[in-house]
Amino acid sequence: MKASVGGYARATDLQHAITLLEAADGMARVLAGGQSLVAAMNMRLSTGDLLVDISRLSELRGVTDEGDTIRIGALTRHVDVEGNALVRDHAPLLADAVKVIAHAAIRNRGTIGGALALADPAAEFPACVLALGATLHVMGSDGERTIAVEDFFQGLFETELEPEEILTAISIPKAEMGERQVLQEVTRRSGDYALAGLCLVKRQGGHRVTMLSVGEQPELATDAMAKLDDGDIEGAIVSLRAEIDPPSDTKASAKYRRHIAGVLLRRAVDQVTGDAR
Amino acid sequence: MSEMFRDKIVIDLTVNGEAVQARVPAGQHAVDFLRQELGLTGAHASCEHGVCGACTIRIDGEAVRGCLTLAAQLDGSDIWTVEGLSDTDAIRDLQQAFIARNALQCGFCTPGMLMAVEELLSKGGVPDRAVIREHLSGNYCRCTGYEAIVDAVESVARARADEVTS
């Protein structure tokens, strides 16, 4: 099928983009890398959009060292996240995640901000930034505000972003000495959406566990995290399987996803403890 | 208000080394633009949601999905399609290897395959078969079973590496 678009405007700077969003009166769609949005438009899952193309806003691109955190511009492409030295040193989970996001040609255009703003529950980056405890930077007509990642995801493809706001950057706390960050997932073919995936971050302050493809939005698996903090791995697996509510669809049943969740947690713990099987 | 958004967008770009100016519909993707406006039918519009890879083209030096890039976004870009790489003989060795190894049957996926492979080979070295498979995981072929394609890519990588060292 072919896209049915209401109109297109190329933003020249961030303020111009905000002005365009306001002018569109709720019909605007922010176009960044387009790797999900253009697909959705081609399938007519989305029609009549007034596209605000922010892809030329170079100020939203790149990674900077901010002391205790690294700041990743929203337009930083997947391929650049993977190759960035600051990301590899301080948030290796994100660099690892890129390897399993879609295919090389898509990673050449897709952006981390686009992936987070879309909030696809089957995508890797939302689960990763939740596991890492990121802070999201947002710009709107009233100026800038920050949103804790725990408050950002609000349901299936729903976020805390207002229609006239743009996600501009993501701050990630730098990994502590000895911190471990692990992504495990099960896919039928390379580049497919995962049947289920799991992020495990182990810090001095405790464990953080999130999952993808097992619910309407990424969530912290708090029961499993508490069990891991107690050193009770078997208990954590039981808790994780109990606290998620995965869907059944053509790719996998809820029962199978629940099973995989436990397997992934065990693999992730093994990987963290160096006992990879 | 609505005049801030356009139905048609003027773009200036280069395609296979030639300057092009065009006025494109807001929702038209790059492959439809190349095929319908410029007559460059090498890149194929197939799944149109980024899964099959038949639309792969080179934008500013990188292989991307032509179906997931709007023509309106191409302003100022340097585009190469399989026609351009063929005419300049840039991938003659790769095309000959595909023929020699039976790495195509119907040929529908081949332009996308060639564009994706060329990006991998341009990084130099001889990627092992797993790396080749992974890089081509986003390009579907329903004829060959991929083995012959991987053979062709591997043989060209070896030949190019030998050329560099000899």
TrEMBL record, chain A:
One of its GO terms (molecular function) is oxidoreductase activity. The keyword Methyltransferase does not apply. It comes from the Bacteria. It holds the Pfam family CO_deh_flav_C. Keywords: FAD, Flavoprotein, Oxidoreductase. InterPro entries: CO_DH_flav_C, CO_DH_flav_C_dom_sf, Diverse_Substr_Oxidored, FAD-bd_PCMH, FAD-bd_PCMH-like_sf, FAD-bd_PCMH_sub1, FAD-bd_PCMH_sub2, Mopterin_DH_FAD-bd. Residues 1-177 form the FAD-binding PCMH-type domain. This is Molybdopterin dehydrogenase. It comes from Neptunicoccus cionae. The gene is cutM.
From TrEMBL, chain B:
Keywords: 2Fe-2S, Iron, Iron-sulfur, Metal-binding, Oxidoreductase. CDD domains: fer2. One of its GO terms (molecular function) is 2 iron, 2 sulfur cluster binding. Pfam families: Fer2, Fer2_2. The keyword S-adenosyl-L-methionine does not apply. Residues 9-85 form the 2Fe-2S ferredoxin-type domain. This is Oxidoreductase. The lineage of its organism: Bacteria, Pseudomonadati, Pseudomonadota, Alphaproteobacteria, Rhodobacterales.
